[in-house]
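Methods: example folding runs. The two proteins below were folded one after another, and each record is reproduced exactly as written to the output file, sequence line first and structure-token line second.
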Amino acid sequence: MKAVLWKGYGGYDQLEFREDVPVPRPEDGSVLVQIGAASVNNTDINTRIGWYSRAVSEGTTDTGADGFSESTAEDSGWTGTKHQFPRIQGADGCGRIVAVGRGVAASRIGERVLIEPVIRLNVRGTVQVIYFGSECNGSFAEYTCVPSANAHAISSDLSDAELASFPCAYAAAEHMLERSQVAAGDEVLITGASGGVGSAAVQLAVRRGARVIAVTSPAKEEAITALGASRVIARGADLVEPLGHESVDVVIDVVGGGQFVQLLEILRRGGRYAVAGAISGPIVNLDLRTLYLKDLRLHGCTVFEPIVFRNLVGYIERGEIRPLVAKIFALSAIVAAQREFSAKNHAGKIVLQP
């Protein structure tokens, strides 16, 4: 089959498009999915360059091409362990089930499915969580295998490319909103609002009845306003002066970096902060007095509960959220797709089709 092999930590030269990769066979309880489309996420870039290593302190904006050294990246897996190579990346996948392993009903063959990227394995009676396309092979291929429970049947008129834009980004966004208990009437500020997770969070927060303040570049204001944002503030601009101290209920952050202090400053007393990314830098200044004197709640968000993805499928089927696809590339153009993604000139998702 056609697939992109990730050969090791580093730059784009570590991605190799091949047409002779063996088609995987579904194990017990698993299904074989023919991928119709996949999409690019920050996690694909971050794992390739070794950014998750604790030895790395800079953001991801300028490191997509070169990556970090092998020694630096020793602990850069989601689980804190070194990856095994070669690996097929890709956290997002949409396609159809074409074969099933033992214990899975043959009637599932032919189902159109979205792949839930958080995979829970029972290892000697203990639940072990791994991430699709990181600790196991993912969707940057013509075929992939996943546990049957992670292949969610979906009924939708959307194209494969549109459906593939949802899983990772929208589940991450919904997880942050759920953890921070966003509800109708809340004032919510969303950083990185034109990216995959950010634009998903805008739609999902509006769906909950919240009023959204989006932070993005002026060139993308129209696109983000169309998703329901009530107000847009330019990326990098001062937040306290236009919004005021203690002016928002919730901050949904995927940027981190130097603006973290202001994000806590604009939170009301008892406010909630949720984070699932740090593209501007993972190391921030935190004054513990701000945290405890304002009774703030800070939520780190990675592994979402299964109900999050089931709810997401329902939102899609009922047309309550819509895809935002910026550009579609052939799988063979993986490097061009990741360059486009890393340039951050787009709004929404970059999609690959095998």
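Second run, written to the same file directly after the first:
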Amino acid sequence: MQDLLQLAEELGLTVIEKAGRHLGGYHHGTSTIRLDPRMPRRVARSVLAHEIAHHVFQDHPSPHGPVRAKQERRANEWAALRLITPDAYAEAERHRGGHSPSMAHDLAVTVELVDAYRALLLRLGDTTYVRARMGAGQWHHRTVHAS
């Protein structure tokens, strides 16, 4: 959590704790992130990373459902890539048989971030890619599994 608070500070964000209707929120105009102080630690770190992502992408609230959905998906993916390592994910997946809620507990993140990370995986033969893109060598991480 401390590393995320440090990142927020480096990005010029102010993080406040205040109860509200939602667990957290990002206000672009004031560069403020609000976190509900009643959240468990794993939820708080997931929400903080998610809200930092909205700042990184300069997201503004949109009344358009598809735009809002894209912003939320992108923020979850960004947060998942910051909080979940490929090795930790692979271990949690092996240990928990792919059960997202159990994996989330082991990885100290929310289920939404486990699902976002899973959506970034591409498995081809004995290789797993994280955030694969078109073209040679365009991926965030690659693991070759022993056969």
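Comment on the second run: Strands lie at 14-17, 24-27, 32-35, 121-124, 127-130, 141-144.
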